[in-house]
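A note from the maintainers: we've had questions about how concatenated examples are separated. There is no special marker in the raw files; a new sequence line simply starts the next protein. For clarity in this README we add a label.
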Amino acid sequence: MKKEKIAVVMGGISNEREISLASGKGVSSALERLGYDVKQIDLTQDLSKFISELTNFQPDILFNALHGRFGEDGRIQSLLNNMHIPYTHSGAKASEIGMDKSRTKEIAKQIGVPVAEGNLKTKEQMQIEQFPLPYVAKPNDEGSSLDVHIVRTEDEQEALLKQWPQGMKYLVETYIPGRELSVAVLNNQVLGSVEIVPKTGFYDYTNKYTDGQTSHLVPAPLPEKDAEKIGQYALAVHQALGCRGVSRCDFRYDDTNKDDPKIVFLEINTNPGMTPFSLVPDIAKSKKITYDALVNELLKEARCD
């Protein structure tokens, strides 16, 4: 019996290249254990080489292990649609919207999901308007908590403004105190939640991908009604964007007032990491879904738009 051919695209040209390579290697190993004919393709600036490798291999399905720009922003998905190659994770439109944090927030707000106050700002606007402290400033279309700034003091604000690239817009939001939570949705069902507890600072790039720097509490220790509500919010955003396969929504859970805790949506990841330190495999494991089974499940939803 002929083996189904799976191309795993990884690497890419974004700042998350190294994380994507780790995801791709993990996925490839799982697919080989599952008995598929697997080809790893490292996407670089040479797009013609990528297209040539795909054409020569003629995969039945492409597993998208890319992260960041040109991986989960709709562009690679549009190319695969044109090549009529079924692929995992969300389609072009959902990926494009999901990568745009500001646009995703607007949609979340429209469907009744609470979001952090704030919007896109230029350096010049921040100098004039004086956004109230504390706040969070982050790129609108990057993942893995890259270049995220929590600004609590005027000195920290001055330091941010000095390194703020001219003409660049950051998404500036009111800082929400409390706990860092993520909820995974798999095939239009809430898979589960996790609380992220860094040993120091916040859940930035270093804490995400350094062994021993962060604890994952799975499932997130929440009152039952709040666990249900945060799951409903994640599923609502997943469906409103038209996501498929797996997504992961990030939230803040402010329980400063124990009698009236607040859940605030931050962003969605339409192509979550599959590294040894990633959240979705941990959530799946808590539901007795092995890494290999999770990878196999994602293949079932693979298609073109």
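[label: protein 2]
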Amino acid sequence: MQEEYHLEQELSLLDPGRIRLFLDEYNDLILDHADGRLPVTALRAFPLTSAGQFIVLKGDDGTEIGVIRDIAGLDEESRATLESDLERTYFAPVILQVNKLEENFHIPKWDVETDSGHRVFEVRSRRRDIRIMSGGRILLRDADGNRYEIPDYRRLDPVSRAFVETLI
């Protein structure tokens, strides 16, 4: 007979009722828990599918402090602080229109309109920096590490869609 699997045995789950998260005077995220206060970095374990669950907190040296299974269990102030921090970390403007798409030396240069304004950026590698997801969703990472999203390229205007289809 197979033993029952317990996720808690593999993860250092933090009790959301026993921790507090806030920003210090330098806008660094601080974890206040039984062992004291320390600066942390919050990362989503599953950023595309479970944005509010399994949030990994790491210390300054990159070591894992623990995992918040679901941010819904945090007090209101901690939850708002964490959501704001994660939103800043995972900021990805939505591409609404592609004005121009040129390729020089196999490096695509995008000229786009986003929900955050006009942007021009280059993508280093089609294979690593353009991810085609189900439902027509496309995630892009530019040469500077900034992220962009097209929720469904098939819903773009015909000219924008034609530009995108030349790369996918």
